[in-house]
Amino acid sequence: MQGLSVVFLVALVSLSSTTAQTTLSVPFRRSFKLSPNSSTLALELPAHNNAYSLTIAVCGAVLPLPRFFVSNGTSVLPGPSGAPGSQGGQELNLDQGLIDYHTLTPDGGTLAIWPSTGARANWTLDVAVSETGPVHQRMSQLPLLGDTSSSRAILFSPPFLPPNFTEPKYPNYTFQPAIPNIPSPPSVPPAPNTSLLLFPTANANETVWLTNSACALASKLGGTLATTATRTILRDSDGWRTQWFIDGLSPSTNYTAYVIEDGAKVSGPSYLLTKSGSFPCPLVHSLPYCPMVSYPVPLPAPPNGATSYTDSNLPQSVRDAVVSSLSNFTSSLKTFACGRDWYSPLQTCTGCQAAYRKWVCSIVFPRCGEPIPDDALGVPASTLTTQLAFNDPNANQPPADPLPQAALSPRAADAPPRSPFLPSINAAYNELLPCIETCQAVDRSCPPLLKWKCPVVGVNANVSYGLGFIDSWDGTMEKGGKPGVPQDEFGRIWCNA
Ligand SMILES: *[C@@H]1O[C@H](CO)[C@@H](O)[C@H](O)[C@H]1NC(C)=O
Ligand SMILES: *[C@@H]1O[C@H](CO)[C@@H](O)[C@H](O)[C@H]1NC(C)=O
Ligand SMILES: *[C@@H]1O[C@H](CO)[C@@H](O)[C@H](O)[C@H]1NC(C)=O
Ligand SMILES: *[C@@H]1O[C@H](CO)[C@@H](O)[C@H](O)[C@H]1NC(C)=O
Ligand SMILES: *[C@@H]1O[C@H](CO)[C@@H](O)[C@H](O)[C@H]1NC(C)=O
Ligand SMILES: *[C@@H]1O[C@H](CO)[C@@H](O)[C@H](O)[C@H]1NC(C)=O
Ligand SMILES: *[C@@H]1O[C@H](CO)[C@@H](O)[C@H](O)[C@H]1NC(C)=O
Ligand SMILES: *[C@@H]1O[C@H](CO)[C@@H](O)[C@H](O)[C@H]1NC(C)=O
Ligand SMILES: *[C@@H]1O[C@H](CO)[C@@H](O)[C@H](O)[C@H]1NC(C)=O
Ligand SMILES: *[C@@H]1O[C@H](CO)[C@@H](O)[C@H](O)[C@H]1NC(C)=O
């Protein structure tokens, strides 16, 4: 509710003549308080020649909720039929705490908010008008889980502001250096002001149902839970994301995450499951040369009581291994005619370098994992329907078989380190194998003369890679694997992508 003036409205509406107390403009945003004891609140809609979105968020479950009516007239008070002073109009219904109304009122109109009797507190309403899409909305993109340890988690907001990238051209074909030049993050605005709401899923009881309303979520759940090391990062080409590092979570607990942008847009829920109390691997994140690494890695506890590894406390030898390997690869890539004779109309040297970067990072930084709990491997009915419709239009019976278990490979405490670049941790753990698509992406996007080879499916590929999770097992059907993604919004992680 930052920056919004709160207006206490005085009852001015008489039975026969209506005086609109506030005129909404385009754009407009303000928070109103309404008492159950006051009379109807009438707001004048703008006389505006373009279509606009009127959005109203109810900021708390004060029941019964008020009712909302609109009309195209400025001299009538729209409202429930039979109510004194009411003259028709259209009722706008709340959907999980939010009204999203797209309209055109060249001659103006009236928005009337009718208090409901019986409420024990005042309502707070966040009202906005915008020509450029609804201010308040439930976004379709979800918060993204990096990964968890037993008491910590890394989460990302949905992407915003995609980066501007221009493919370099021959003869001046410049590659990203091994440690890329990362542009400075966009300021707020244009970047949204994001906040994270995280709470144990078990606490999401009947009080948490106004989930389309950012202000209701924020007030009900009491804001963020112990967030530190928040930064804005360019994780991939989707765009900038806010990254949160959260400490102080309980082991083996399912958490629910919502992200709120500018106090108005809601994204979520995504779920995440913390690892068990004996999980030995610390989280590694915020490495400029490996932007996708935001997961637990088999390393000893970070030095000096740090809660995680970042570029600043990672052993220099590990960093050198990545940088040297990327530099060597880029040098050989440079011998190809990048930007001139394309070896494929769809692929570029930049894409090849990016695919290799992702692969080499997944090899230098193996990922620790834990089995997905059996009861989380059942398929929710809604997912099933879409999956079936996609795979087999004729099937209408849900298949009985559950989702597969994660691609885990047990590593004994006395085994040599999985990555030759990492020190030993002297603890047993399960490695979450890289998805084979990470290897195949290098094969697909790099010049054939590089002679890249991924292990062959059916021979021993499943010893070092997760197979059949993203693409079908034999690689013939893109996204045809089970479940078709490396991880999902329910906190299940199948392979390291
Ligand atoms: C107001 O007028 C617009 C445009 O004529 C129309 O689309 C809309 O349905 C009207 N709204 C009401 C509440 O009558
Ligand atoms: C409404 O008025 C009644 C009686 O005057 C009072 O007891 C009650 O607290 C008021 N409600 C609110 C929300 O102010
Ligand atoms: C509701 O708002 C009115 C002013 O409009 C105020 O007098 C009253 O105390 C408020 N009631 C509650 C329960 O906050
Ligand atoms: C990309 O370029 C456009 C136009 O130059 C600019 O408005 C936009 O902010 C840029 N985006 C980023 C993420 O820098
Ligand atoms: C090549 O491109 C880089 C960055 O794109 C630029 O800084 C440099 O001046 C260019 N060199 C030539 C010779 O055009
Ligand atoms: C973002 O929102 C928070 C909480 O609403 C506020 O404290 C902070 O000042 C805002 N930051 C910016 C840059 O607007
Ligand atoms: C509902 O959730 C709140 C916190 O969000 C918690 O304090 C309360 O105990 C929960 N109630 C039930 C019945 O679970
Ligand atoms: C990169 O090339 C140098 C020189 O050929 C070699 O010494 C080094 O081992 C290579 N690095 C990797 C990671 O292969
Ligand atoms: C976490 O809870 C959600 C909601 O109950 C559920 O759908 C999901 O499967 C759970 N995740 C795990 C990994 O148990
Ligand atoms: C790998 O695949 C082979 C044959 O396809 C199978 O016998 C073996 O059990 C699999 N290993 C693992 C670890 O899944």
Explain how this protein is built.
With 497 residues, the chain is an alpha+beta fold. Helix content is 13%, strand content 24%. A 5-stranded mixed β-sheet has the order 1-3-10-5-8, covered by helices on one side. Strands 2-4-9-6-7 form a 5-stranded mixed β-sheet, with no helix packed on it. It has a 4-stranded mixed β-sheet with strand order 11-18-17-14, with helices on one face. A hairpin with a 2-residue loop joins strand 15 (227-236) and strand 16 (239-246). Helix 2 (316-334) packs antiparallel against helix 3 and helix 3 (349-364) runs antiparallel to helix 5 (436-445). 37% of the residues are buried. Residues 1-18 and 381-395 have low confidence and may be disordered. The structure holds 2-acetamido-2-deoxy-beta-D-glucopyranose (10 copies).
Number of helices: 6
Shape: elongated
> If you compute it from the alpha carbons, what radius of gyration comes out, rounded to the nearest whole angstrom?
27 Å
Q: Kindly state the mean pLDDT as a whole number?
A: 86
The share of residues in helices is 10-25%
Q: Which ions and ligands are bound to the chains?
A: 2-acetamido-2-deoxy-beta-D-glucopyranose
What structural class is derived from the secondary structure elements? alpha+beta
Distance between the termini: 38 Å
| Count of distinct strands | 23
The largest sheet, given as strand count, sense and whether it forms a barrel, is: 5 strands, mixed
In the predicted model, the low-confidence regions spanning at least 5 consecutive residues are 1-18, 381-395
Order of neighbouring strands in the sheet with most strands: 1-3-10-5-8
Secondary-structure element series: EEEEEEEEEEEEEEHEEEEEEHHEHEEHH
% residues in beta strands: 15-25%
